[in-house]
Every structure is written in C-alpha cells, then in structure tokens.
Amino acid sequence: MSPLPGVAASGNAIAISSTTPPRRGDKLTFNWSTDAPDPTNWIGLYKSDRKPSSGVGSLVWAYVPGASGNTTLDTSGLSDGPYTAYLLAKDGYAILAQTDPFTFTGEPLVDSLVLKAPAAVYEGDQATFGWATGAPHPQNWVGIYDGDRRPGNGGSLVWEYTPAASGDVTLDTSGLNGGPYTAYLLAKDGYDILARTDPFTFIPRPVIPRPHAVVDALTTAPQTAGTDFSVSLGGLWIRPEGNAAGTPSFQRVSGDRWLSVTADGTISGTAPSFRYKSPGRVVVSVTDSAAGRDTITVQVPVRSSRTACGSRSPR
Hints:
The chain is mainly beta. Helix content is about 0%, strand content about 45%. It folds into three domains: about 15-105, Sandwich (Immunoglobulin-like); about 110-200, Immunoglobulin-like (Sandwich); about 210-305, Immunoglobulins (Immunoglobulin-like), CATH 2.60.40.10. The protein has one helix spanning about 305-310, and strands at about 15, 30-35, 40-45, 60-65, 70-75, 80-90, 95-100, 100-105, 110-115, 125-130, 140-145, 160, 165-170, 180-185, 190-195, 200, 210-215, 215-220, 225, 230, 235-240, 250-255, 260, 265-270, 280-290, 295-300, 300-305.
C-alpha cells in the first residue's frame, strides 16, 4: 500500500540541507534517503496547497536513483511560498516522504534590464545584459529591437530566454551596427514588457593599422671599402596597439651579392675593396607571424679607404 500523502514511510526522509531559512534566488539542496531505492524515484517541488497527484506539474524536479544522497534543485526563480518538496516513487506520485512547508524570504525583485558590458559597445561586440524580475518564468526572454519598433511589431533581431529571477545574458549582437537599439525583458514567450534598457548605439570600430615598417627605404652611413659592417632593421618594425602579439621575419628579396640578410633583420657584409659609383642596395621583405607584410629598400654607400683615412700631406 502506498504511504499516505504528507506522511513519511518508515526508512524514507527528505529535508532541506541548510538550517537557514531560504532566500529569494537560492538554489536549495535536499538531503534524502529511502529504503525503496529505484532509478526513477524523484524529488518534485510544489506549492504547499498542491499535491503531486493534483494534475499540476512540479515547479522543479530531479531524479534521485540511489538509497540516499544530496540533490540541488534550481529554485532561484521561486519567491514567497509556501512550498513543499516531495520524495516520490518510480516516476509516479506515490509519496515516500515530504518536507515541512517553507517560504523564500527577502524583498521582491524589481523588474529591471541594463546593458552591463562592454561599457562602450563597438560594432562586432557581443553585448551582455543584466536582468531581474519579481515574476520569473521559464519562458521569460530578452530581445533587441531597432529604432522605434516595440515587441510585437515584427520579430526581434536577437533574443535569449531568461528563466531565473535574475542573472546575466549575452546576446550575439556581432552583426548589428549603428542604432539606436533597445533591449526588452519580456514575459512568458509573449510581448508583455517587464523592463527595458535605455536606447544604445554600436560605435564604428576604429581601423587598427597592421604591423608595418616605419620607413620604406633608408640609407646607412658610408662604409669603408674592404671593411665588415652590419646594421639591424628590427627596430623599424612597429606593432600598433590592438594587434595580436607576433614576431617579424626578414628575408632578402634582391640586391647586391655582398649584402646578406638574417631572419632577425640584420644586414651584414664586407664592403667591396673598390669604391662603388652608386651605393650597394638590398631589398628586404618583412612578414609578421600575426598579420602584416612590408618591404624595405636599404642603400649602403661605399667610400674608398683613402677617403676614410684622409689625403696625405704634400712633401
């Protein structure tokens, strides 16, 4: 024979884990045990004036397949009361045990909806909204509308369900630009407005220059014929703020054979022993590991050793 409603059968028990009265927004954990374990035993939460067999569904529920344990139900959307939690048998409504009635304390939440992040919304950003409502429902939702359009006048541009009494929700607004737009907190899969944001606009995202060389060409100091020299181009590569981290790689494209280029941007060589009529020349390509490509043309004047030493005094 099934136990009488409201009476715990011998060996069956359920109670709220915490001794502190529950507050609005809490997720309650229940301790339970049974001498009739079954994979489809379950816990359901009902208004205290309803019974599991009354034809009204539980507000929240979860299976409890073992002989004992702790189970947390998402009661964050519930307020006031009283409520009763039942330990029920085999996917049915036979009551194994039940809690004493309990009530959620705390001031009712005021319906609100605010744009929380980012502080300045740029084109391509995903916007996060914070909501609170004193009338939570699994099918409450937040939707964004453009211009003067209001809910019910055409579809929302983007939307998400917000089933709890409060929380944050991020909408994929990356495809929106310009404005103004308004976000609405709406009730029960319908168009009754619980709250709305102030109008907001997406700011055009500034164009961030890619990493690049600060000059297209440079001429080194004159090098003495027959001597070794080197010069580094690494300091000419800049990475404007907003670019991803990366490393430039330098490579010789063309130029005089006596000029070589290493991957870190060092140009080196031995100046020819005879004086060139025109400077040595090498073209260097730069490729950044993150983004960006550029070319630098380097000229290396060569002077004769006699010019470097100065002219002899006459005898």
